[in-house]
Specification:
With about 325 residues, the chain is an alpha/beta fold. The protein has two domains: about 20-250, Zn peptidases (Aminopeptidase, 3-Layer(aba) Sandwich); about 255-320, OB fold (Dihydrolipoamide Acetyltransferase, E2P) (Beta Barrel), CATH 2.40.50.100. The chain contains eight helices and 14 strands. It has an eleven-stranded mixed beta sheet with strand order 1-3-2-4-7-5-6-8-14-13-10, sandwiched between helices. Strands 9-11-12 form a three-stranded antiparallel beta sheet, with no helix packed on it. Helix 1 (about 40-55) packs across helix 8. It holds the Pfam family AstE_AspA_cat. Keywords: Hydrolase, Metal-binding, Zinc.
Length: about 325
């Protein structure tokens, strides 16, 4: 079980705690989530640091609204596990008949997200690697994820300031479903399971960025979360911008192009991969239990390698450089 910082009290029940700050001056409405996965604690600590600044007057809300949810999945946090009964960041849509704990949580969280303009969702990951942001599609009128606020979403990711930004999640999720079904296109119900917090936010007319603050136990990750919240507040004009603040630097942008599942407990990586490790076309990545050697399909980067992935779930993602500019 992960060790939690002393300043973050473990929830003793399954109560969702929400902290709201509202200025009398109208402005953008930002919501920040931490602890969507119970073993990811850095977002919670980053939120608590910002909340302390607001409570003590060190930070003042100039306009708009800010809502902070330090632990979005109290059951998973209490257990110190990724999930309570299932992954809260899947099938993130309201339900008339919630079938599990996460569905009941989703019914509480969806109205909160829908009442805001912008979402910042704070996470961490299992493998080693640098912090990065994830954004949604470019503006489009397609059926998978129509969107018209790509420029604003990209601007938020730019100002958060991670060295890398990754796009293409829902496209690759849909491709992974088709791959598991032998090439058959996924139906709406299967696609809906791929919806997380950001996809729901976009469906409500807002936009959102997922920030992966680093490896779960990285001592620098809470500061990454804290600075990201402050950057979002400044960008939206909700708090004062410090004198002499530097303009953001254009990050490297990557596009997810494939996902590979772990098919057997005997499937093993050829070495310990970290997120964003570069690989050349043909370079060995993993060895299937049946002796099949998996090689890089082209020059690119390993993303979210998970040596402990359950059979039938995502083992690693593959990304290439994108031509998108934020």
């Amino acid at each position: 079980m992960p060790t939690f910082p002393d300043l973050i009290p473990l929830p003793c029940d399954e109560t969702l705690r929400v902290h709201a700050f509202a200025s009398t001056v109208p402005g953008p409405r930002l919501i920040v989530l931490g602890g969507v996965h119970g073993d990811e604690t850095c977002g919670t600590e980053g939120i608590e640091r910002v909340r302390a600044q607001l409570d003590t007057g060190g930070l003042q809300l100039l306009r708009g609204r800010l809502t902070l949810v330090p632990v979005a999945n109290p059951l998973a946090r209490r257990r110190g596990s990724r999930e309570g009964e299932r992954n809260l960041n899947r099938l993130f849509q309201p339900s008339d008949h919630p079938a599990d704990y996460e569905a009941r949580l989703t019914n509480l969280l969806c109205p909160l997200l829908a009442a805001h303009d912008v979402l910042l969702d704070l996470h961490s990951f299992q493998s080693a690697g640098e912090a990065f942001s994830m954004i949604g599609p470019r503006d489009n009128s397609g059926l998978l994820e129509p969107f018209s606020r790509g420029a604003e979403e990209g601007r938020l990711a730019l100002h958060i300031g991670t060295p890398r930004v990754v796009e293409g999640w829902l496209d690759i999720y849909a491709a992974g479903l088709a791959q598991r079904a032998g090439g058959a296109p996924p139906d709406d119900a299967a696609l809906a399971f791929g919806w997380g917090t950001n996809e729901y936010m976009r469906s409500c007319g807002g936009y959102g960025v997922t920030l992966e603050c680093g490896q779960h136990q990285d001592p620098a990750a809470p500061a990454v979360a804290e600075q990201a919240i402050l950057s979002a507040l400044r960008l939206l004009g909700l708090v004062e911008v410090p004198v002499g603040a530097r303009p953001p630097v254009q990050p490297t942008l990557l596009r997810l192009v494939s996902v590979t599942d772990r098919l057997d407990e005997g499937d093993q990586f050829v070495r310990d991969w970290a997120t964003f490790d570069a690989v050349a076309q043909g370079e060995p990545i993993g060895l299937r239990n049946d002796g099949t050697l998996l090689r890089a399909e082209r020059d690119g980067f390993i993303v979210f390698p998970n040596a402990q992935a359950l059979v039938g779930t995502e083992w690693f993602y593959f990304a290439v450089e994108s031509d998108r500019v934020l």
